[in-house]
Amino acid sequence: DWVWETDPTGRYRYVGPQCTTLFGYPPDELIGKRLLDLVGVEDADRIRATLVQYRDARQGYSMLEVGCRHRDGRKICIETSGTPFFDQNGELLGYRGIDRDVTRRHATTENLRLYERAISTTRDLMSFVDRDYTYRMVNEAYAERHGRPRESIVGLRVDELMGHELFEQVVRPELDRCFAGEDVHYQYSFD
Questions:
Q1: CA-wise closest residue to 5 among 85, 105, 63
Q2: What is the rounded end-to-end Cα distance, in angstroms, of the chain?
Q3: Which of 4, 24, 35, 37 is nearest to 72 (CA)?
Q4: In sequence order, what are the residues at sequence separation of 6 or more whose Cβ sits closer than 8 angstroms to the Cβ of residue 58?
């Protein structure tokens, strides 16, 4: 985590030494700079508007995700939180805050979105069922096959969708093999 303090215009007047690890810059090179100087081009307008909105409202912000550039040119993603502080007359003196590197978390989230998109667009019927035989995810093809919206299937037990007899005689034994760690290749026609 990297701690910092800015003046009312957003220029850093204190930066903790962790900025070297986070951004690749030593503290003395960031004094007088703004977060916007570190933000990637694709995020600049959004972050500028957001920070101005918080400053004008004299409010703090929490866990704002920002795409930045490390000194070596690679993209990083930080999560920034800041709290305004004021003088005895209520004049804004600046913000104090903390940033953390969330690059890995951001990449993982993006990869999950891509997987979800791939799974939801395939015509193969796909579902994820937990050990309580409850649907945790179904793709669009699965939902269409059962004539229901995806949201109405997630949270149901398999036997509630397929019927008790089919579940007990056909589906449950195969799921139990999967839950036991077996590599199961199974195909069944529900027509």
A1: 85
A2: 57
A3: 24
A4: 84, 86, 92
Confidence of residue 188 (pLDDT cuts 50, 70, 90): low
Name residue, tokens 């939801």. Answer: 120
pLDDT tens digits, residue range 107-150?
Answer: 888 888 888 888 878 888 888 899 999 999 899 999 999 999 99
Amino acid at 102: V
Q: What residue spans of 58-149 are helical by DSSP H?
A: 103-121, 140-145
Show the DSSP H helices in the chain as ranges.
Answer: 19-23, 27-30, 41-57, 103-121, 140-145, 150-153, 158-162, 164-166, 172-179
Copy the structure tokens of residue 3. 């701690």
